[in-house]
Amino acid sequence: MALVVVVDYGMGNLRSVEKALGHVGTSDVIKVSGDPADIAKADKIVFPGQGAMPDCMRELESRKLIEPIRIASAKKPFLGICIGLQLLFECSAEGGVDGLGLISGEVRKFAPNKLDEGGSKFKVPHMGWNTVDICHPHPIFEGIDSDEYFYFVHSYFVEPLKSQVVIGKTAYINGFASAVASKNIVAVQFHPEKSQQSGLRMLSNFLSWNGHWSG
Amino acid sequence: MALTKRIIPCLDVHNGRVVKGVNFVSLRDAGDPVEVAQRYDEQGADELCFLDITASSDERGLILKVIEDVAEQVFIPLTVGGGVREIADIHRLLKAGADKVSINTSAVLNPNLVKEASDFFGSQCIVVAVDAKAIPTAHTGWGVFTHGGRRETGLDAIDWGLRMQEAGAGEILLTSMDQDGTKNGFDIGLTRAMSDALEIPIIASGGVGEMRHFVDGALEGGADALLAASVFHYGEMSVKEVKQEMARAGIEVRL
Lengths: 215, 255
Known about the structure:
The structure holds 2 protein chains of 2 kinds. Chain A is α/β, with parallel strands linked by helices. Helices cover 23% and strands 28% of the residues of chain A.
């Protein structure tokens, strides 16, 4: 029985993530916690997040969670979701804040008032269901096709320095990296916990993943 | 592949039960929010909207139970509106499992609420509901009403939408008081005006009577999402049929 800790640093609603993991991971213990001791004990880490990145970094600092997360991210199967993806990068245009720097690259804001081919405005936030073009096979995509939909809601996106870490891309405005992976870390911009069957499948894949990926 | 237009069934919840006739064949209990939510989820609803129409504050807690129960079983975004007055209300709803809250009258009474809420919880979970009606005195042609459309605010609908976007609203739920209940279709002019003026997504609401109306709302109105209640409740059409109709019209939908 694996202990899966959903990192709670006071940002956003973790109940959905907890419920969805509990739904698929019936033989795992799912624990929402902001206690460094739990993060140290965990077999797997889920790192979600909502709101603004500067607030998230401030909360992580004040709760003394940065070092425990760094240590856990070095070896345990680690899943970042939404802001939990963006926080892994070096810096963000949102408030000019530095992230955890675990993956090289930056977080940028969607340009406003861009028009699509039909002349309609791309709305920001990018909100709703969109597909993920799988450009690198990864265990979390097991049984998932490139035409399946996931639920997105975000105004910022990640731009990794190295293209090898990009395992999924989504077409919106100029297109962006919607899933990245590096060794035992995998992170997605969308919300698998809100993406019905496709999302549940992905969470289930994460729970059965041993953390090995050579890219 | 691209971002799809969303179809959002809206459920009126009163004292913990879904009211208005829900006409799904094979439901054991047509008023059970979990059963109704699961049925819409199976049909391919992209999100669900719960409108709490409980009048007495004593029974407000019941909506929390509804959301908790639905969130256990249904893994798509859930929005809750009705009776959201302060930050503490939002906190309770999100904690129960709501992903977004919709603020209507309270946004007009206290415009700072939207700013405070979006600063605190993030824009992604703050929906501002605008009830609009054509009035000659409004400079863009539509005014904002509150209290279920009974009270005129003197605000212009499009200006108000822009102000709420500035305050941090993540999307606008735009209901046409003129079209609501008519079954003549969405107010295309109003929807298009709001969609063109704002950068955030617009959910069109009010007036759906036939499948073609969803297509018109998306293509002519420029809505990003389309909300309806009675046509789904009374089984006049299913979410799936609507999406198939939209796909035939060349609109990207999640089927």
